[in-house]
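User: Predict structure, ligand flavin-adenine dinucleotide.
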Amino acid sequence: MSKKVTIIGSGFSGLSAACYLAKQGCEVTVLEKHDRVGGRARQFESQGFSYDMGPSWYWMPDVFEKFFADFGKKVSDYYELDRLSPSYRIIYKDGPLDIPSDLNELYDVFERIEPGSGPKLKQFLKEAEYKYNIGMNDLVYKPGLSLTEFMNTQFLKGVFKLDVFNSISSHIRKSFSNPKLIQLLEFPVLFLGALPENTPALYSLMNYADIVGGTWYPKGGMVQVVNGMHQLALELGVKFELNVDVSKINVANSLAREVVSKSIHKEFDVLVSSADYHFTEQTLLEEPYRNYSKKYWETRKLAPSSLIFYIGVNKKLPNLLHHTLFFDEDFETHSKEIYTDPKWPTNPLIYLSATSQTDATVAPEGCENLMVLIPIAPGLKDDSATNDRYFDMVIARIEKQLGVSFKENVVFRRDFATSDFIKDYNSLKGNAYGLANTLSQTAILKPKLINKKVRNLFYTGQLTVPGPGVPPCLISGKLVAEQVQKYMKQN
Ligand SMILES: Cc1cc2nc3c(=O)[nH]c(=O)nc-3n(C[C@H](O)[C@H](O)[C@H](O)COP(=O)(O)OP(=O)(O)OC[C@H]3O[C@@H](n4cnc5c(N)ncnc54)[C@H](O)[C@@H]3O)c2cc1C
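Assistant: Predicted complex:
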């Protein structure tokens, strides 16, 4: 008889785990507190605008291709991808720079900004390619349960080339000295939630992903990836129960027996939680069954939270690309205000996504769909007056940059900040994407996929291995399914 598996949460990791476990022959049910699947990547619609709530950068297309190939499918069976060109725009203090998708053009851009840096970029990317190949084909597929996993891998053979013990900040500065190029090469690391000086140089693999792998866009938005995985899960027989807010996991004799919500009591053979790890342990489980203490969580370095504005504008805006990074303010001050002296930022860097520039389906005709994101320290208290202050600030900066005013053309606005991350995702201090990828929070030092005290309870998602981001969450679902399979074979 097939084993019953219940999964809490339908973000990328929950959807991925559901697909792999169903393929393994399990009877899988996903419980989701929201009225739709996708978690941090779900979509909402209002007044003809459709907004991706979270991720907007589609990087590492090979990881998505590999995921669907595990089920005999292709990405193109579920959604259509376009490579963005230029990849994105950076607004520096002295003006904008478009990052070309063509590598040779980018070498020229580097050479123009810092003579001699073109060939250095070539060498830098060669090393980054090595790290990408080992990192994304080998290291991220380790469950991170023991050091021995790394003993026979290419990791040991090439440990120095992988640059695990240097920071990416010093790695970049060895080859480049122009502040603009340094900022451009440090930007992808911001996805990992820590400062470049605290992030291992291994992660220059993100530069390879950015510059060589490219920035892609699924037609219809990132939600198309969610829809594709949801569709695949349904084809594999997974059942989804929406609007189920799990409030307790009952345990007896070292086994999770049932999950409880206002509306259901559900029994299973195996339970996988893809809800935020800290919440699952500290809120759903009683103390004797937790892997980690309250103190453990208090001492973790969290990725930033975000203040996000979803904006609808009733006219088209000129001089705009799909992705724009506003690096026109002081990076050091802002990063201090996130990491070392947490406070609302004085003059933050901002990210602007304008999906309607490349996709007519996400806004009514003649309108613009904008999402503005300001990274902020986790745990900051937000309120509408603070949001209003930052809204005025970011609109003024965008208007100045584009050379047009559009504040009076804003016909839709929704704010999302720390308190929303807590309310919607039970996120620790309202962090947006889990734990920072510092050396002391990497691989075997991350919260584990398995519960050591409750044998049939497993975890997946951005707070466990391999870490934050859409591609890692797809892989996390695969890793947890392998651990469940092992457990089932032994029991
Ligand atoms: C604003 C933002 C921008 C980002 N940008 C990018 C990007 O551009 N590119 C990229 O690759 N990554 C990006 N990321 C990171 C990426 O989106 C996440 O790492 C990933 O989506 C997390 O997936 P997950 O499955 O771990 O968690 P989630 O998506 O949070 O899924 C967990 C699910 O559990 C559900 N849940 C929680 N508690 C309960 C409960 N008690 N009962 C039932 N269900 C429950 C939640 O509703 C949710 O659906 C971004 C994240 C954010 C927030």
